[in-house]
Amino acid sequence: MGIKAPETYVYQGPPNDLLNNFMRDVPSTIHMFYNTVKYCGHRPAQKYYIGGGYMTLTYQEFAERVENFGQGFMALGLKKGDRISIMAPTSPLWDWCDYGGRAAGCAVNTIYPDDSSETIIYTTNHSGSSCICVHNEELLQKILKIWDSLPEVKYIIVFDNNYTSDIKNVLTMQQLWDLGKEFKAKNPDAYKERWQSVTQDDLCTILYTSGTTGKPKGCALTHKNVLSSTLAVSQVAYWGGTPFTYDDIVFSSYLTATTGIASTTTVLAFPMGG
To answer: Closest by alpha carbon to 68, among 173, 205, 163?
Structure first.
């Protein structure tokens, strides 16, 4: 049975066309993301340090990268309801991959880069992940050593485009994006149809405990869970005297993206265009 949000759960902040009927009108976190792209596509979405300077992406540019990932995952044959794992430190690429996976209808599992092989094997198999995305060659090698113990993992994606390999089913981010563009040329409407099919009751992400008292425990969050948390945080900010507005255009994350709080606050930036 799907998780049902209370009928009385409504926005209680200052007038806001996007939040007044938030839980009623927004089917998923992906719909929320593309609503923001529609209304705030020209506004800054991400600002990050790279190559000796800062780079700023608008929401439209952010969306293009999300689509590259989403179409790439679909090109690999991933279906709605499949699972993807991300093993990388917090970075803009983490968000692109996360939202690309959600847009492809997949649930995203998180793996800490310093997790032990035993933990990675357990959480990857427990979540049923069929694809793992890693930050660089160092983390790739960590997965390659245990790949035989991950029977459902069919593909590994390396964010570092400078990496080269002839290992079957190990692709760089750019190679994944190229496959996605080929997929789009043959199936021009497939990506939009996929993300538009995602509902509040679909699984969005799986977060695992540290496992200090035994096996890590997976917390499965639906899109409804994440949306309701997003709405709750926006209301707390309002009643606390610091409401979010469209003028809040700078957002920084100091938490690792694998935490639930970071996931919620990243999502929060989207309905506000901040």
So the answer is: 173
Residues in the chain: 274
Give the number of other Cβ atoms within 10 Å of residue 4's Cβ.
9
52: left (phi over 0), alpha (psi -120 to 50) or beta: left
CB 256 within 8 A of CB 90: yes
Contact between 143 and 170 (Cβ < 8 Å): no
Q: What is the pTM of this model?
A: 0.86
Choice between 243 and 145, residue whose per-residue pLDDT is larger? 145
Q: What is the CATH number of domain 22-272?
A: 3.40.50.12780
208-225 per-position pLDDT tens digit: 887 677 888 888 999 998
Query: How many CB atoms are located within 10 Å of the residue 253 CB?
Result: 20
Integer Cα distance of 267 and 262 in angstroms: 9
Mind spelling out the 3-state secondary structure of 72-104? HHHHCCCCCCCEEEEECCCCHHHHHHHHHHHHC
| Of residues 268 and 240, more confidently modeled | 240
Q: What is the mean pLDDT of residues 12-30?
A: 77
Distance from C-alpha of 234 to C-alpha of 178, rounded to nearest angstrom:
38
State the SS3 of 126-173: HHCEEEEEECCHHHHHHHHCCHHHCCCCCEEEECCCCCCCCCCCEEEH
